[in-house]
Amino acid sequence: MDGEEPEAVEKGTMAARGSWASSDAVRASMRANKSRDTKPELALRRAVHARGLRYRVAARPIKELRRTADLVFTKARVAVFLDGCFWHGCPEHHTVAVRNGGYWASKVERNRTRDVDTDRRLAEAGWTVVRVWEHEDPVQAATRVEKSVAEARRTQQRRTATPPERPQSPETD
């Protein structure tokens, strides 16, 4: 090869860099994506906060489960996830990646599968899950969150207000 690098290495491909990105520019762009405090998330948090609700941000609803919700109402046991249209495959706005389409299609499918698993596990643990798409109006989404939290609190109050029934023991003569 007379000291020349193959074309793939020259262009900085995945094999050359050991990266998942199809180019250095794509890698830089993807690394710039924030995992929290995005514009849609901040808008939702402001709208929920304006309704007087207080919550934890980017917290694990269940410590053993390595997944974080965007908003967590610990006492009410409500977890809110704000899903990005591209990353979670929004039926209205998801676009197919132009480059490395197979990788991204697989990634989105894994995200969807993980979302379903997360919802199931949280429900089994007694949590209410609210999923919000990034394109949704934050005020309308905040209304859904508020209703879910209020319903969860009412359910908890009913459980604590009525003592559990005790089995009746047979009377002896």
Question: What would your notes on this structure say?
Answer:
The chain is of the alpha+beta class and 173 residues long. Helices cover 47% and strands 12% of the residues. It has seven helices and four strands. The chain has helices spanning 7-10, 14-17, 24-32, 39-50, 85-88, 101-124, 138-161; strands at residues 56-59, 69-73, 78-83, 128-133. A hairpin with a 4-residue loop joins strand 2 and strand 3 (78-83). The longest helix is centred in the middle third of the chain and has 24 residues, at 101-124. Residues 1-16 have low confidence and may be disordered.
Defining key terms:
7 helices; 173 residues; alpha+beta; single chain
